[in-house]
Amino acid sequence: ATKASVAYYNQNINGAITGTFSSVITGVTHDLSKRTTLYAIYDHQNIGSALLTSGYATSQNGFTAGVRHMF
Fold first, then answer.
1. Do 26 and 8 contact (CB within 8 A), yes or no?
2. Model pTM?
3. C-alpha distances in angstroms, 70 versus 3, 4, 35, 40, 63?
4. Distance CA 47, CA 11 (A)
5. For 2-16, what is each residue's pLDDT tens digit?
6. Which end of the chain is more exposed for a tag (fewer CB within 10 A), N or C?
């Protein structure tokens, strides 16, 4: 069986430092057998406003894939 999921997170920060943080995460798993699963996860994050120091990136991406086998 194949399963997919999506999540979105958004946070507004107000105080001595103000800014925003958002993240989108998508994932897929596929069962090869009763004990073996393939998986892949993609994550994109944005950071805005005063949370950043000059010269740093405002977004980042991550990707993970693998095989999980349970004994």
1. no
2. 0.77
3. 18, 20, 5, 17, 22
4. 10
5. 999 999 999 988 877
6. C
